[in-house]
Each structure stands twice: as C-alpha cells, then as structure tokens.
Amino acid sequence: MVKDDCIFCKLAHGEIPSTTIYEDKDFRVYFDIAPATKGHCLIIPKEHYQDVFEIDAETAGKLFALATVVARGMKKVLKCDGMNIMQNNGTIAGQTVFHFHLHLIPRYDGDGVDFHYAPGEANMEELAMIAKEIRANI
Ligand code: AMP
Ligand code: ZN
User: Fold this and answer.
1) 48 C-alpha to center of ligand 2: Å?
2) Ligand 1 nearest atom to the CA of residue 32, by list position
3) How far is CA 95 from CA 8, 51, 76, 114, 123, in A?
4) pTM to 2 decimal places
5) Which of 5, 97, 105 to mutate to test the pocket of ligand 1 (most atoms within 8 A of CB)?
6) Domains along the chain with CATH numbers
7) Residue 93 C-alpha to ligand 1 middle, in angstroms?
8) Any catalytic annotation for residue 101?
9) pLDDT tens digits, residue range 51-90?
C-alpha cells in the first residue's frame, strides 16, 4: 500500500528525490537529509507501514538482513569506528516520519553524538510478572 500524504512513500517510489545507495523491488536505502554524522542513511520498505507495531515480521526480517549488508559496505567505505542502528516508533520515541524506517548512523571517534540515558533500577519481581504477560501476548 502507498499512503498519499506520506513523504517516504513518495520517496520510495522516486516521486521525490533522494540520494539512493541501494534499491530493489521491496526496499530503498538513501542518505538522511539531516545527518547525525557523515553517511547517516535510512532503510525503508517501499510498502507503507507506520511503525514496528504495523510492519510484518517477514518484511522486517528482510529489511534487517539488508541492513547488515549495507552496514558492512558503509564501514568499508566510510571507515567509521562504529555504528548505531536506530528505529523510532511514536512521537514520544522521536519518530517524526510515520513510515517505518531504520537509521544506520556511522560513528566516528570524537563525533560528539550522544544517545545516552540515565540508567534506571530494575524491579525484578515486577519484571518477572511483565515478562509472563508479554509471553502470553506474542
Ligand atoms: P525519525 O525521527 O526516526 O522519524 O527520522 C526521520 C528522519 O527522516 C530524520 O532523520 C530526517 O532527517 C529524515 N528525512 C526527512 N525527510 C527526508 C528526505 N526527504 N530525505 C531524506 N531524509 C529525510
Ligand atoms: Zn509511507
């Protein structure tokens, strides 16, 4: 499905321009227009899925398999020291474009990018209960 008012649907099908690294019938990989670091790119399915809650497991699996291949190519070319792979779902989580996308963010020593959060405390009893509930819902 293509969503009429979705910028990444348009981009997926070449209706708006992108600097594309790779494309096949199901996916497009292109550079982020406002990169966190040199080489920051996005992988999208050409079909419209809003987020991780909507994408099917098979498509998501293929997308991540592609990410591993692209990541290795990027590492070779960009000579980055590491890479963050990030995927935001919902406004609270930082999602701004509501078409599923995976960020590949090359990291370079001293690049100053900071994704850190203050570590919390785990409540083991509560987590054991939550684990049981989630297990019953997957
Ligand atoms: P997110 O905040 O996870 O939803 O990420 C959306 C990303 O899409 C941001 O990093 C934007 O810079 C990027 N972006 C938005 N429009 C375009 C575009 N036309 N071409 C490439 N990247 C884009
Ligand atoms: Zn879309």
Assistant:
1) 4
2) 22
3) 13, 9, 29, 17, 28
4) 0.97
5) 97
6) 7-136 (3.30.428.10)
7) 14
8) yes
9) 999 999 999 999 999 999 999 999 999 999 999 999 999 9
Determine which one of 99, 101, 103, 116 is catalytic: 101
Residue 134 Cα to ligand 2 middle (Å): 29
- pLDDT band with cut points at 50, 70 and 90 for residue 1: confident
Mean pLDDT of 15-39: 98
Average pLDDT in the 14-38 region? 98
C-beta 97 within 6 A of ligand 1: yes
Mean pLDDT of 34-52: 98
Cβ(33) to ligand 1 under 6 A?
yes
- Judged by its nearest atom, the ligand closest to the C-alpha of residue 6 is 2
